[in-house]
Amino acid sequence: GAAISPGDVLMVEVVGRKDLSGRFSVGPDGSLLLPLVGNITAKGKTVQHLEIELERRYSLFDRDVSQVNVAIAEYKGSTIYVWGAVTRPGKHTFAEEPTVWQAIGEAGGPAETAQLSSVEVVPGDASGGRQPQYVDIATAIRTGQLARLPRLKTGDTVRVPGGPGGSMAPNSVLIFGAVTTQGSLPLEQAQDLVTAIVRSGGPTPDANLKKIEVVRKSGPKLVRFRINLNDYLSKVGAPGNLALESGDAIYVPRHRRSGFLTSARGVAALVGIVTGVVGLIIAR
Question: 222 in helix, strand or coil?
């Protein structure tokens, strides 16, 4: 499993001891302060390793404690967006700041059509004079210099040209994540968010419509819109159906199992829209 990072919020359940269970934050130094056992080093450990250590420690104080369950309730690692000619485009989280190549690897690796000589990196935060840059990963692979590739900061975006959406056609948008068909759409066919999702075959059953993200390039910066499409679909007059612009990238995240049912109504509404559109096409 993924390593625990500073800032993560952990749900710790000491079975049989509700007084010792609860939500606990990992401090900036990577330590976790827990009742009874005090400070534990959590940074770099997996959830499974931490469970084993906590079971051992708690059993020293209470012999009846034989099981401790740990889950990451909020993940505060480095969040990197990767899209273009990769196997799994989307938002990926890392315990530490990854290199450009590590981010592409987490996204499933480059597609066969990937042009690794000109991978674009757009800073999520332009403070400190950070500017968009192009990275020649092909040469780094050939010369064995992958470890020297620049490291990314949380919020950065990596675009790998060469595949669907990697080298976007003019006047188009890119949609990826929890939709039936990922890739580019002509802007004239996807002038707003709902239409883009419909034209992509609709959301998958595990789509989290509450946390859709639209990334828009504005000069050297990226602007991110976070949209709750559930509100738009269920409440009259609610905002959410964003008008799209050429070059927009839409990311529809997937639900974690704990919140899976919360967007069922929204998914059903969009599936209904998709069915209606398909019906119109067939009727023609």
Answer: strand
